[in-house]
Amino acid sequence: MKINSNLKPFNSLRELIFFLILILYTSASPPYAKAEDIENLQKNASITYEKMMQAKQNAETFTKDLTFAEKKLATAKQKLAEAEKAVETAKKKSEQARISMEKATKQWKQASDALANEWGKTEVK
């Protein structure tokens, strides 16, 4: 019976030695090293949690700031719209006043001319 060389777990003696060293290293590592690893992971998790909570607090603060700014913007837009309406109203009243003044000036000139004509007629006599 012939053994297929592709089914061998290790292709070389070098791979077998490397595997055995790896097994010895992991099984021979002292427990305090694993405890240090766990402690470092806990510290890292704690630091990461604090950063996450700070980021959450910042997000909440900035969301409140955004809401406040949007309200201020809406108020400003409303005041701007009211001011624009007031400007339009003032323009219309100003134009009406100008037309009234022109009309009154024209009537005054007509009345003055009529008066001047009457005075001129009476002086000639």
Give a description of the structure.
The protein has 125 residues and is an all-alpha fold. The protein has a domain at 37-123. It has helices at residues 13-28, 31-124. The model has no long low-confidence stretch (mean pLDDT 86).
Give me a quick take on this structure.
The chain has 125 residues and is mainly α. Helix content is 88%, strand content 0%.
Report the major sheet: none
What is the terminal-to-terminal distance?
158 Å
Structural class: mainly alpha
Total E-strand runs: 0
* Percentage of residues in strands: under 5%
Give the C-alpha Rg. 49 Å
List low-confidence stretches: none
Estimated helix fraction: over 70%
Bulk shape: rod-shaped
Number of helices: 2
- Give the overall average pLDDT: 86
* Order of helix and strand elements from N to C terminus: HH
Coiled coil: 38-107
Keywords: Coiled coil
